[in-house]
Design goal:
Lipocalin; 3 helices; 12-stranded antiparallel barrel
Length: 357
């Protein structure tokens, strides 16, 4: 018998709600997730990466555990946006004149699919498309004379990610681990200007050119008897092990912890699920001859109120993410390497739609 389809006559949201009534799950499962997060944190500190830190959109509410649909198959589309137009050095704003880069405005269009093979295993795949506008200072080799400001636009594929998820640690699938790979399908060379120089730095391109290990973990637990109030933790760690063209992106660890509230169990009406989460990111320095290690790598904390709307086969989710604390690596002065600081965004946006078959 196909374990995934056992009890498939129930509405998918009813099954999810029943899982939450059974929470919390075993102490062993929670301990395993915590051990993973601590280990990833320790590894990420050893190498102090893409300057945008766009993996922050991959963790948190709206995309925690696989959706247990009757067929096991679901598709999703995620839209994310951020405008990095403030120069930071350390823990505070810095003069825009310190940084040769002036603005990185990006729309991310991510297409993904999940297949729940059985109650213990699932596979996930996603491919992002970057629509990016990059404004920087010319060094005299790209568009015009040295010191002039130019803007270059690129719309291209990012790096493809494939993940295998083990969800058999708890009978209710409330705890899981993922192991996967990020492949160098994205553009990592970029456009050149009319004068022949590269318009983009390596850390601002859609692709890194590297092949990365990807590790993830999640846990969902109930906070009251009927499971209407629940908490979650979610983590993702990325480590580049094959690189090219003298550039290695830094390690990145993204952690999310939050709560959400749900009520009702009707299969014929929409359910509204508000959430609130805290997201932490730890990004290592880039390395290699084509990297800028002095001005890459950061630590930051964001808060994100969100809302999910659940229908029988469709789920909609959106949140707004506000940085409340950030510490970015920066050169000691612009004279050291020609630029100092990193561009950060004052707010990030994410919206997700998924369909279960």
């Amino acid at each position: 018998m196909d374990e995934r389809r056992t009890g498939s006559a129930e509405h998918p949201d009813d099954r999810a709600r029943e899982r939450h009534r059974k929470l919390p799950t075993s102490t062993r499962a929670r301990t395993a997730v915590l051990a993973f997060m601590v280990a990833a944190l320790l590894v990420s500190r050893d190498v102090q990466g893409c300057a945008c830190g766009c993996s922050v959109f991959d963790v948190g509410a709206g995309q925690l555990m696989p959706w247990d649909t009757p067929s096991g198959f679901s598709l999703y589309f995620r839209y994310s946006y951020m405008n990095q137009n403030q120069n930071w050095e350390g823990t505070s704003k810095a003069p825009a004149s310190d940084n040769a880069d002036k603005e990185i405005r990006t729309r991310f269009y991510t297409f993904g699919a999940t297949y729940q093979i059985d109650r213990s295993w699932a596979v996930m795949a996603e491919l992002p498309v970057y629509d990016r506008s990059f404004t920087s200072t010319d060094d005299g080799t790209v568009f015009g004379p040295a010191g002039s400001i130019y803007t270059s636009n690129i719309t291209d594929l990012g790096d493809f990610e494939l993940l295998a998820l083990y969800t058999g640690l708890a009978p209710d699938m409330s705890t899981g681990f993922g192991l996967g790979v990020k492949l160098p399908t994205g553009n990592y060379t970029g456009p050149v200007g009319p004068l022949g120089g590269a318009a983009y730095d390596r850390d601002t391109l859609p692709g890194t050119g590297s092949t990365d290990y990807v590790l993830s973990a999640y846990h969902v637990g109930g906070l009251n008897k009927d499971g209407s109030l629940a908490y979650f933790v979610h983590a993702k760690f990325q480590y580049a092990f094959l690189t090219r063209n003298a550039y290695r992106p830094g390690n990145e660890l993204d952690l999310a912890a939050g709560v959400y509230w749900t009520s009702g169990s009707s299969a014929n009406s929409a359910r509204f699920v508000p959430s609130f989460e805290v997201i932490g990111s730890l990004r290592g320095r880039d390395s290699g001859a084509n990297a800028n290690p002095e001005n890459t790598g950061f630590k930051r904390i964001l808060v994100a109120p969100g809302l999910e709307i659940r229908f029988s086969k469709v789920r909609l989710y959106a949140d707004v993410e506000f940085p409340v604390c950030q510490d970015v690596n920066a050169a000691s002065s612009p004279d050291a390497v020609g630029t100092a600081g990193q561009l950060v965004a004052s707010v990030l946006f994410k919206a997700l739609i998924s369909y279960g078959f």
